Amino acid sequence: MESIEIRATSIKDINDIMQIEPMSFGASHWSRSTFINEINNINSQYLSAEIISSQKKDNSKIVGYIGYWKVLDEGHITTLAIHQDYRRRHVADILLYNLICNASLNSIKWLTLEVRVSNIAALNLYKKFKFKHLGIRKNYYQSDNEDAYVLWTENINNPEYLEYIKGIISPFVNKKANTDKLQYTIPAKQLK
Ligand SMILES: CC(C)(COP(=O)(O)OP(=O)(O)OC[C@H]1O[C@@H](n2cnc3c(N)ncnc32)[C@H](O)[C@@H]1OP(=O)(O)O)[C@@H](O)C(=O)NCCC(=O)NCCS
Known about the structure:
Elements: E1 2-8, H1 14-25, H2 32-40, E2 44-52, E3 62-71, E4 74-82, H3 91-105, E5 110-116, H4 120-128, E6 132-137, E7 148-152, H5 159-169, E8 173-175, E9 182-186
Helix pairs in contact: 3-5
The structure holds coenzyme A (COA).
Coenzyme A is lined by residues 24, 80-82, 87-93, 115, 119-122, 124-125, 128.
């Protein structure tokens, strides 16, 4: 079992992030300078999932990240990626849950995003979090002209919705001893 903590992304995370970007988005991945601009943008919020090593503190690394832009009372999810070795262990569930809570505290009512029509993993994830299809943007992705679905949430401040998404991540939550910090214990990778 391994634990992760979710915290605001910082410039020192960029080396780890730049390992995950190409394996997640291929030729159309973001550059280092795009990330630096995004992290420094006062209208953006990025969160990192950091592995917590019980032995050495300097052993920790980033295995996933997510972010959004705030535009009035709307949040636009700009990216989400998980290191290949850590996929299917609920890290995206945990990051998306934390992003929604962060956005709710940041006076955001609705979240929106674009996703490739072929991205079954991401579409299932957003469906699990009750994102709805709002429409389709034809030829949205410049690299290959693939279409994007536009997804949209209900009002994320609805207490029933917040309770529902809490249920998704509750099996993984652990309170760190002697602090208010939460850690998430992620299940071991299933052998195929
Ligand atoms: C999409 C992505 C972020 C999912 O991350 P992950 O940590 O593996 O996802 P989780 O383990 O938290 O799974 C959460 C849910 O997503 C869905 N899901 C994730 N991977 C899936 C897959 N390979 N096939 C089908 N559904 C999948 C499931 O609904 C899953 O819930 P379940 O385990 O209860 O069935 C990851 O595959 C990734 O980084 N892909 C490349 C980048 C990308 O496509 N980002 C999204 C851009 S919009």
